[in-house]
Q: What sequence folds into this?
């Protein structure tokens, strides 16, 4: 609904200007007031939803959005409309933030969550295509007020669905909103936006404009100082110490300021330069919208083959080229060139829409993902807000300047009321101020002035996109560190020691390769710790056996004593595991995959075919290559054997294949020193893998096992192997 509202309003802006006798600065606030409140309150709305109940805040957001939409539609002045739009932005923030949290809370298992977010993304894409067309139809047949009234029945229907289908949820540990940070951020963005909107009319060097720029600078400075010393800041500015993070955030801001903002600016161009109706301008936006919908698939294809900086640079370059093509088409009055430019612009936007978010998340440690996501959202909507204000200022200022020069050259008197109405987009009313003969001449001058203003605006957007593309190439060297561990086997002290060691290496993402239960007394504690850290996990053979209550299969390699102990330990896990943790185990996927640059890394517990297969160093190379062909990976990492290992293979076709094993966290094999985990570091296009070893108090864990219902066999095994390793290391 937030996407529909933003895009529909962009199409009906010229109609609103005519209906409320508004100037161009007023029209900028129609967009600016909404985006300012929405972007500033999205993070605190999420915090309040966690504390007071997500469904409750969601319903509050729906109600406020509906009431504000009613006020927008009923507005009799532009001031009333802009105040109502600000309230609509507040409602939108309190609607969207809990909606995202509800999806995350309701769909916890990886496959269901993936489907839910896919549906979410699909709906966003479909609404982006339909919204401009809907805006044109509404403006043509119902009037601009219905661009807001249409939200009311949607909100009522949504509220009924929420009351019937969504249970209340909250996060008792959620922190308090950063009121000081929020207030200073809003003040800074408001002052900056006001200065940019006022500049074309009052002059960039006027006291009013310079005063607002100075106020914005002071507010931003105070905001940075306050956030630096806050325990729970709105924005953690320490993340900006990372150059790749700065590059990724700048790419997001630029995408929003030079591509996404065009959903509001291009309809103005189509109506004021091309002379199209609101309906025709809605149809005219389809090349842009369709390309935005389709090109994320191209971005996913690119992600398998090149680093993030090249993808973002390519997307920004396409945005720049698209803006230049549109600018050329506007000046030359070639409609087909404008259409082509829109498609190119949309293709760049489609590539950037998801990839900028991925790039930002890929440059921060895993535990800072929530804050990075908030900064990403803030950068996106700040880009829309400031992009619309600055590009609007360029458009209004140059159109005004060009029209005045043209009127002076044609020996026509320059009238301020006429200029203001032209810049606001109300051309019919402006021409009505003149006799027919002069109005005919002025209509040509107006179109040329608009064309000149839009072409300059688009050229400036293109230059900024090109500049940031170069910045991204030189800053976004992906420095991606990841950690992989496996076979915890309910050994909580070992897992805590490994996670502490991982945290010292500034890791971006952590994965667990299964077998979190059996053979030590802490299965629930281990699962709770993994879940609290939001660590993705693949299913292991012991996880499946416990979760599915499968019988224990005797293995020839085990002695009778070990087999008996094994059966007792697994039976104990089945009895002590909580029902919630059992469901969590049963829903684990058998494999996961992720990308480090263009490299696809496959994660399995044992092998792609089985949860119990041992992929040891002597394993068949031909089988490994068959798996690579079938599953399309560059690196395969497993656990299960408890022996850490890394080996490189080269196929006959020259393709490289890396096979690695994490070793074990919670069990010790002869010759394996304590716990092990695998660290990956992707930097400057190369991936390095290294086995890390971690010492922990093996004797204390062995004693804890001995004091628990877990069979003593595992205490003795852990102690003997651990002490043998310690003696070997000391002798070495």
A:
């Amino acid at each position: 609904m937030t996407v529909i509202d933003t895009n529909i309003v962009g199409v009906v802006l010229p109609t609103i200007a005519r209906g409320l006798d508004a100037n161009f600065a007023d029209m900028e606030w129609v967009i600016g007031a909404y985006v300012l409140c929405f972007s500033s309150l999205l993070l605190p709305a999420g915090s309040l939803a966690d504390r007071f109940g997500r469904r409750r805040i969601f319903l509050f957001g729906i109600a406020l959005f509906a009431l504000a939409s009613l006020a927008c539609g009923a507005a009799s002045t532009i001031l009333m409309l802009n105040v109502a739009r600000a309230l609509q932005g507040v409602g939108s923030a309190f609607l969207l933030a809990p909606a995202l949290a509800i999806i995350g809370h309701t769909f916890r298992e990886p496959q269901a969550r993936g489907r839910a977010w896919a549906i979410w993304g699909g709906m966003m894409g479909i609404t982006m295509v339909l919204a401009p067309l809907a805006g044109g139809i509404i403006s043509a047949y119902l009037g601009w007020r219905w661009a807001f009234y249409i939200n009311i029945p949607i909100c009522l229907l949504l509220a009924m669905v929420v009351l019937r289908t969504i249970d209340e949820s909250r996060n008792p540990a959620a922190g308090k909103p950063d009121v000081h940070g929020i207030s200073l951020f809003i003040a800074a963005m408001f002052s900056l936006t006001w200065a940019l909107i006022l500049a074309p009319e009052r002059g960039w060097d006027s006291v009013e404009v310079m005063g607002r720029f100075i106020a914005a600078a002071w507010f931003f400075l105070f905001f940075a100082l306050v956030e630096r010393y806050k325990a729970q800041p709105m924005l953690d500015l320490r993340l900006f110490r990372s150059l790749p993070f700065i590059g990724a955030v700048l790419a997001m801001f630029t995408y929003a300021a030079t591509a996404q903002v065009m959903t509001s600016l291009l309809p103005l161009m189509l109506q004021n330069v091309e002379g199209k109706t609101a309906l025709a301008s809605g149809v005219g936006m389809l090349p842009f919208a369709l390309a935005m919908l389709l090109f994320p698939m191209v971005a996913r294809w690119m992600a398998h083959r090149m680093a993030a900086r090249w993808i973002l640079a390519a997307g920004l370059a396409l945005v720049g080229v698209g803006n230049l093509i549109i600018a050329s088409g506007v000046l030359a009055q070639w409609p087909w060139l404008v259409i082509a430019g829109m498609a190119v612009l949309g293709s760049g936007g489609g590539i950037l829409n998801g990839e900028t978010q991925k790039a930002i998340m890929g440059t921060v440690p895993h535990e800072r993902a929530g804050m990075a996501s908030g900064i990403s959202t803030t950068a996106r909507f700040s880009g829309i807000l400031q992009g619309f204000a600055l590009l609007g200022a360029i458009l209004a200022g140059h159109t005004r300047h060009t029209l005045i020069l043209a009127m002076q050259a044609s020996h026509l008197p320059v009238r301020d009321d006429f200029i203001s109405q032209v810049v606001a987009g109300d051309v019919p009313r402006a021409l009505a101020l003149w006799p027919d003969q002069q109005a005919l001449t002025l209509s040509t001058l107006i179109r040329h002035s608009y064309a000149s203003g839009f072409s300059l605006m688009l050229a400036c957007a293109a230059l900024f996109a090109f500049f940031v593309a170069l910045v991204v190439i030189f800053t976004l060297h992906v420095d991606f560190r990841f950690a992989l561990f496996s076979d915890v086997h309910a050994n909580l002290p070992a897992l805590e020691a490994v996670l502490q060691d991982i945290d010292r290496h500034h890791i971006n993402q952590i994965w667990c390769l299964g077998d979190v239960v059996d053979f030590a007394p802490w299965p629930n504690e281990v699962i709770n710790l993994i879940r609290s850290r939001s660590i993705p996990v693949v299913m292991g053979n012991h996880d499946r056996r416990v979760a599915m209550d499968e019988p224990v299969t005797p293995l020839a390699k085990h002695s009778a004593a070990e087999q008996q102990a094994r059966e007792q330990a697994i039976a104990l896990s089945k009895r002590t595991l909580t029902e919630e943790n059992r469901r969590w185990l049963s829903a684990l996927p058998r494999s996961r995959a992720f990308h480090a640059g263009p490299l696809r890394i496959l994660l399995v517990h044992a092998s792609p075919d089985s949860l119990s297969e041992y992929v040891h160093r002597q394993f068949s190379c031909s089988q490994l290559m068959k798996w690579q062909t079938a599953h399309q990976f560059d690196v395969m990492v497993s656990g299960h054997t408890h022996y850490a290992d890394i080996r490189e293979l080269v196929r006959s076709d020259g393709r490289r294949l890396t096979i690695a094993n994490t070793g074990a966290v919670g069990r010790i094999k002869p010759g394996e020193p304590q716990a092990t985990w695998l660290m990956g570091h992707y930097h400057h296009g190369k991936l390095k893998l290294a086995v890390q070893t971690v010492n922990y108090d093996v004797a204390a864990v062995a004693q804890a096992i001995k004091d628990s219902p877990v069979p003593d066999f595992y205490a003795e095994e852990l102690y003997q192997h651990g002490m043998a390793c310690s003696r070997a290391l000391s002798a070495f």
User: Anything to note?
Assistant: Residues 178-233 form one domain.
